[in-house]
């Protein structure tokens, strides 16, 4: 048993010496390959695993940050928009000479889109029935009903609200009215009107003061039945994105 | 069955030496799992396993650690042979037998040092700051293993 063991030991010793001699004479490149395969692959695997955990955590933190930033961006944009609107209103208020009452729109009445609005001022602030209402872009509508602290305003998108207007270029007069679209009625066929002309309120109306901008003439066609022109108007105000309006006192 | 356990243990010890020693080390001092395995297999299990495992582990050690191939099979088989010679003369379940583990670790560390550097000053310095502390650490772990071996008897 002991002899066998010694014999085996000597044999293994001999092999070891042979390997050493071969290795010293010629580099065994297989050793590098094996080393790289086992050692680096395992290390890489461990590194990748720990890195993926780290990335997962980082990713969730970044997602949270993105959500916060997008919320901040949204509120910043809202503030920016509001600021621009307020600037416009301020500019308008200093520019407009008449006595006007700024009113915040507090509610939109649901019966029809952009037809009636409730404003936060009423009789106690000096608002009277049928008073003209304007916005920073032009004519907005008129006061329909008044309460003590709030009033109902009808926009121009109402068939019953008609305005006497004129073409600023040719002084052609007509009636501005909503009939599923905005039209200029009562203009004779020979009248000098062109698309692009600006329409403002005329002095003939009893409600609106003279010279308030209303809109731009977009299409002119002949209405053979009435021997008049069918003129389509695009108002400056779109009635959907308004927060503050002005009621003209006198 | 026994041979499979030995092979698995050898692979584990080799992987431990290759990949996790920097995690398990204290400063630059780490224990020697291959020597521990060789020591306990030869002395407490079967010296034949120790001889062959010593040869193959030494060969693989040479490959993975880019040290002269052939040197470590020589050292490890010699260690196994040495342990086989003393096995009959000592009471291996006594904690004092661990002095051999210390010497084996020291011997392997010293040879390793000789292959790495040829400056005498460096060798003497490394001997005190690395080889001896590593031998002590390995012996302490061997102590724990021996405790469990004794308990399981």
Give an overview in words:
The complex is a heterodimer of chains A (250) and B (153). Chain A is of the alpha+beta class and 250 residues long. Chain A is 36% helix and 29% strand. The longest helix of chain A is centred in the N-terminal third of the chain and has 67 residues, at 29-95. The radius of gyration of chain A is 41 Å and the shape is elongated. The N and C termini of chain A lie far apart (127 Å). The model of chain A has no long low-confidence stretch (mean pLDDT 81). By secondary structure, chain B is an all-alpha fold. In chain B, helix 1 (2-24) runs antiparallel to helix 2 (33-44), helix 2 crosses helix 6 (120-152) and helix 3 runs antiparallel to helix 4 (71-87). The longest helix of chain B has 33 residues, at 120-152. The two termini of chain B are 20 Å apart. The interface between A and B is medium-sized, with 27 and 26 residues.
């Amino acid at each position: 048993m002991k002899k066998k063991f010694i014999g085996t030991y000597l044999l293994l010793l001999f092999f070891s010496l042979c390997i050493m001699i071969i290795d010293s004479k010629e580099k065994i490149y297989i050793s590098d390959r094996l080393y790289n395969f086992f050692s680096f692959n395992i290390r890489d695997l461990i590194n990748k695993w720990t890195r993926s955990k780290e990335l997962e955590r980082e990713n969730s933190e970044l997602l949270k940050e993105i959500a916060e930033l997008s919320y901040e961006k949204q509120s910043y944009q809202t503030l920016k928009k509001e600021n621009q609107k307020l600037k416009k209103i301020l500019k308008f208020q200093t520019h407009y000479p008449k006595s006007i009452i700024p009113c915040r729109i507090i509610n939109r009445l649901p019966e029809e889109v952009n037809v009636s609005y409730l404003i936060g001022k009423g009789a106690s602030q000096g608002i009277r029935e049928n008073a003209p209402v304007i916005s920073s872009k032009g004519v907005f509508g008129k006061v329909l009903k008044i309460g003590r602290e709030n009033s109902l305003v009808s926009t121009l998108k109402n068939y019953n609200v008609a305005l006497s207007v004129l073409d600023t270029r040719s002084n052609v007069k007509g009636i501005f009215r909503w009939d599923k679209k905005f039209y200029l009625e009562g203009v004779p066929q020979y009248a000098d009107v062109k698309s692009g002309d600006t329409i403002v309120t005329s002095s003939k109306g009893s409600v609106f003061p003279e010279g308030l901008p209303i809109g731009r003439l977009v299409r002119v066609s002949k209405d053979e039945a009435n021997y008049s022109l069918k003129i389509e108007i695009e108002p400056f105000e779109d009635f959907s994105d308004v927060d503050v309006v002005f009621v003209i006192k006198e | 069955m026994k041979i499979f356990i030995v092979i698995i243990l050898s692979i584990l010890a080799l992987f431990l030496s290759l990949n996790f020693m920097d995690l398990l080390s204290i400063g630059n001092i780490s224990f020697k799992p291959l020597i521990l395995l060789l020591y306990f297999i030869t002395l407490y299990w079967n010296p034949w396993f120790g001889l062959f495992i010593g040869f193959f582990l030494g060969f693989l050690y040479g490959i993975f650690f880019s040290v002269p191939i052939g040197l470590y099979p020589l050292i490890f088989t010699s260690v196994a042979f040495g342990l086989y010679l003393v096995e009959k003369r000592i009471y291996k379940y006594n904690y004092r037998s661990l002095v051999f583990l210390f010497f084996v670790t020291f011997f392997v560390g010293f040879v390793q040092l000789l292959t790495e550097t040829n400056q005498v000053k460096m060798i003497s310095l490394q001997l005190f700051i690395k080889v001896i502390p590593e031998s002590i650490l390995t012996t302490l772990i061997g102590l724990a293993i021996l405790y469990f071996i004794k308990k399981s008897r």
